[in-house]
Amino acid sequence: MGRLQKILIPSLGLVLAFWFYSARDTFKPEMLRGKRVIVTGASTGIGEQMAYHLARMGSHILVTARTEAKLQNVVRRCLELGAASARFVSGTMEDTAFAQRVVREAQTSLGGLDMLILNHVGASYFGFFDGDVEHVRKLLEINFLSYVAMTTSALPMLKESEGSIVVVSSMAGKVGFPFTVPYSATKFALDGFFSSLRQEFAIQSINVSITLCILGFIDTESAVRAVSHVIPDTPAPKEECALEIIRAGALRHRQLHYPARAVGTMLLIHSIAPELFESIVRGSYRLENVRRT
Ligand SMILES: NC(=O)c1ccc[n+]([C@@H]2O[C@H](COP(=O)([O-])OP(=O)(O)OC[C@H]3O[C@@H](n4cnc5c(N)ncnc54)[C@H](OP(=O)(O)O)[C@@H]3O)[C@@H](O)[C@H]2O)c1
Ligand SMILES: *[C@@H]1O[C@H](CO)[C@@H](O)[C@H](O)[C@H]1NC(C)=O
């Protein structure tokens, strides 16, 4: 199996890389100039980096998360970097009323919305499923239901602007990985909701794009803290990841794979030989370091 892995992975990677680079249309940062964008989960991590890229591109930015002090700093930095405007709303996405309030804020202070970037995630654990059903419910509210609520509230504005919805998901939202059972469930739910909604938009000629972002391991503080003792891979940079997400949204792509080659290759192997894929995954973890419950 080791040899198969050595031959299969690089050759699949080459094919995918060629397809990926030849099929891409061109992105220009000016595409985001003057655009009104909401970024959720923007107090830290990939969301924070997306806010800074959008600022450099001259967008009107509305960021949200729970921690007001961090959001104040993000807004200040966005203004320094050249944002057309920057503001924040703080609160928790456990509450759908709050999710709707963030969208209303875009209506009142920006007069509309061009791009809705849904990126926040609630804290979970990395380890064997502990049977805590309430945790699954709470995580579904934060990671899934609030995405549905924001999308629903923002749809009239997005239809008017022929705008875009960008949903940040994960490899764990496409295939089963161990140790992220509740998280994975919430990310799979996003795929179901947004892929189905995209079909209805096409039938109804609603020109609002939906971009689902399938991310691998990214070097944000929270991810590195949670998994680096178990996963030997080097994480990809959050700055580049953030830029790729914005680019895919602006180009109205249906799906983003980042890092492209690693994620594309894994999804391809999984679709051809799921059991082989699953055993490669299990074999790549440092199981002795996993928390047991
Ligand atoms: N990093 C990775 O390796 C990786 C891999 C695959 C997918 N992803 C996806 O990429 C996205 C960003 O990940 P990240 O690593 O940048 O995450 P992160 O650094 O942990 O940031 C999460 C953000 O969500 C906010 N948040 C947490 N709980 C919240 C709540 N209850 N209500 C509102 N906001 C809340 C946090 O701010 P407050 O604490 O201030 O609320 C923070 O701004 C997520 O969708 C994640 O699933 C990441
Ligand atoms: C959909 O909206 C985009 C962005 O405004 C535009 O470029 C594209 O031509 C529109 N497509 C249709 C079919 O109207």
Your description of this structure?
The structure is a single chain. By secondary structure, the protein is an alpha/beta fold. The protein has a single domain, classed as Rossmann fold, CATH 3.40.50.720. Helix content is 54%, strand content 13%. The protein has 10 helices and 7 strands. It has helices spanning 2-22, 45-56, 68-81, 96-110, 133-161, 181-203, 221-227, 238-250, 260-272, 274-284; strands at 36-40, 60-65, 85-90, 115-118, 164-170, 209-215, 255-258. It has a 7-stranded parallel β-sheet with strand order 3-2-1-4-5-6-7, with helices on both faces. Helix 6 (181-203) links the parallel strand 5 (164-170) and strand 6 (209-215). Helix 9 (260-272) crosses helix 10 (274-284). The longest helix is centred in the middle third of the chain and has 29 residues, at 133-161. It is globular and about 55 Å long. Bound molecules: NADP nicotinamide-adenine-dinucleotide phosphate and 2-acetamido-2-deoxy-beta-D-glucopyranose. The site of 2-acetamido-2-deoxy-beta-D-glucopyranose (NAG) has 2 residues, from loops.
